[in-house]
Structures are given as C-alpha cells and as structure tokens.
Amino acid sequence: MLSHQNLIKFLFNRELSEMYISIALRDLALSMSGIFVPLYLLVDLEYPLSKVLLFFLIFSLSLTLSVLLAAKFTSRYGVKHGILMSMFGLILYIIFLLTLPYHNIYFIPAILSGVSTSFYWVNFHVDFARFTDKKNRSREVSLWFITSYLSVLLGPIVGSVIVTFLGFTTLFVIVSLILLLSALPLFLSSEIYEPIKFSFRYIFQKSHLKEIYFYIGYGIRMMISQVVFPLYLFFLLTKYISLGAISSLTALGSVLVGYFIGKLSKDEKREKTMLRYGSLFHSLGLFLMLFVKTFIQIAVVNVYLAMSFIFVDLPHHSMMYTRAKKQDNLMEYIVFREISIGMGRILGVLVILLTGKLVIGFILSGITMFTWFFI
User: Are 156 and 244 in contact (CB under 8 A)?
Assistant: First the structure.
C-alpha cells in the first residue's frame, strides 16, 4: 500500500509527477474513444468484420515496424519530443478516422495509429525506467496504474454519453484537444536523450526466449482486449452507454487491486509468483466469458478479468524496468520488448482472422465466432 509519505515522495519527483499527469490525460482521452473505434468501423461505417480486422492488422504491423524508428528519433531529438510527436500522430489519426466516410482509405489512420503508438510507448518506457528506483519501483508502477485507471474510470462512460447524444465527431474533437494537452506537462523539465544500439540478433538470443514467449502472449491478449472485447460486449449489450458503464466498472476494480498490489510487490521473486497465479486466474476469467448473457454477469466477469490482469501487468512492468536498467543499453531492451509485443499483436489479429474463416455459417448478429476467440 502506498503510504502518505511515499505518495508525497513520488509526486515530488518532478519527472515522475510530470509523467503521471501526462499519462492520466492521455488515458482519459483514449479511454473516451478507444473502445468505440472497432464499433465505429463495424456499426457506423458498416465495414465487414474482415475489413475491421484488416484495419487492426495494418495498425499492428505499423506499430511493430516503426519501433526502431521511434528509438532512433528519441536518441537524436529526445524522449519528450518523441512523446509530443506521438500526440500529433494520434490527432492526425483521429482526423483521418473522422473523414473515412468521405475517402474510405482506411489504411492511413491505421498506419498513423500504429506509428504514433510505438513512438509513445518507446519514449514512455525509457522515461519511466530512468526515473524509477529499484527499491520503490513496484510502488511507483502501482501509482502509475492507479493514476491511469482513475482516468479510465471516467473516460468510457463520458465517451459513451458523448457518442450517444452528440456523435463520434464531437467525441473525436474533444479527444484530440486532451491528447495535445497531455504532452505539455512533460516540457516543464529538461529534455532527455537515450542512445540506441540495436541488432535484430538481440531478439533471437537464447537467453531471451522465455521473455519473447511472454511478450508475444501479452501482445495477443492486448489485441483481444482492444478488438474482440468491445465487439463482443456491444453485441451482448447493444448500447454504447452500457458498454461505457462496464468499462468504467472494470477500471474501478483495477484501481482497488493496483493499490493493493503496490504493497505486495516487494521483490522480483514475489512479483514472479503473482504473475504466474495472475495469468492462471485471468485465463479462467476468459473462459467464463463464454457463458455470460446479462448485464450483471458481464459486469462481474469483466471486473474479475480486470482485477486478475493487474496481478500480471503490474509485476510484469516492474520486472521489465528492472531488467531494462541492468542492460548495457536501456533502449535496446525497450526496442526488443516492443517488437516482441508487436509480433504478438500481429499474430493475435491473424488468429482472429483465421478463426473467423473457420467458423462456417457465422451470422454477424450472433456471437458464435467470439466463443472461438476466447478459446
């Protein structure tokens, strides 16, 4: 648990406090719109499901292929400028997303989203790795998660209300303004430069096989949560506001668990134990999704899924930053991690596409195919 003394200490760490404010604003913006993008493409623009999945495949490929570019940009222009570039990229992505009904060139926003996402996370992880310390890292990561999920707690329900009453255009304009604001706190302190030394042989070293396996699985899970979950829940609930309410409830559960895990994660041995059991319990939650039908059942299982995943995600990030700091070149490890996760994202979308092809007689208004996704 974060004591008042520790909380004050972390907030007065200038670099960390800037990052907490920035991530809170960014996550507020993205949580207002992110869960609705697959639905915007599928329901509002009436894209076939295969085209929606192709959009996210292009996104995943763009993200993975631009990781090294993001790292090279950071080494020359600095972390903060890299994050600022990612925000401009996301705003351009939103503009092209809004204008899809007029030009239908859907690969452009997909590419912009992928590149801007890679620019953000490469720079964020470098910044966070540099300014957290080993003794308090799990608590500092915990505070990041709490800050993030407090924003996510508000974002989906606000976003769903805006979509329902004012439409997607208004939502995307508001999101763009918040994204631009999120980069400003980072420039209250001096720029940070991180040199890059990277070889693709680094990814395939025998000592990294276990980590690649984990990161690929992590990437697959991210695509399931980003694409499959919003579609599946919307088909069950049929209302944007209900989907927003579910997302906000899951964020509340994540805040509570994140606060608790910050106290438990005292060393890497304990973090590994939490990660193993968290993975097991989270998998059981995905299995339960096969049987949910009512709003209450959906809410309970989704809160459980969010809470169980924190037992995976928080220790994973804490250990990742510790390992990154131990490397000869911090950026090299961050690039390795992001490329590996990107490979998982690509594989995840390909699996979803293949699964859809294998399900014979699938009707879009049903949810038969989604059971295969969760399996």
Answer: yes
Contact 320, 337 (CB under 8 A): yes
Tokens read off for 65 = 């292929």
Q: What is the DSSP string of 227-253?
A: IIHHHHHHHHH--HHHHHHHHHHHHHH
Exposure of 87 in the CB half-sphere (CA atoms within 13 A)? 25
Q: Contact 334/126 with Cβ under 8 angstroms?
A: yes
Rounded Cα distance between 78 and 87, Å, is 15
First-to-final CA distance of the chain = 35
DSSP per-residue letters across 85-131: HHHHHHHHHHHHHHTHHHH--THHHHHHHHHHHHHHHHHHHHHHHHH
Query: How many Å apart are CA 342 and CA 65, to the nearest integer?
Result: 8
Rounded to whole angstroms, how far apart are CA atoms 315 and 176?
32
Structure tokens at 332: 């090299």
10-residue averages of pLDDT along the chain (375 residues): 47 66 81 74 83 91 94 88 88 86 87 93 87 74 77 73 77 81 75 74 74 88 81 71 67 67 65 83 82 77 81 84 82 90 91 63 49 65
Q: Give dist(CA 258, CA 37) in Å, integer.
A: 27
Question: DSSP characters for 32-65?
Answer: HHGGGHHHIIIIIS---HHHHHHHHHHHHHHHHH
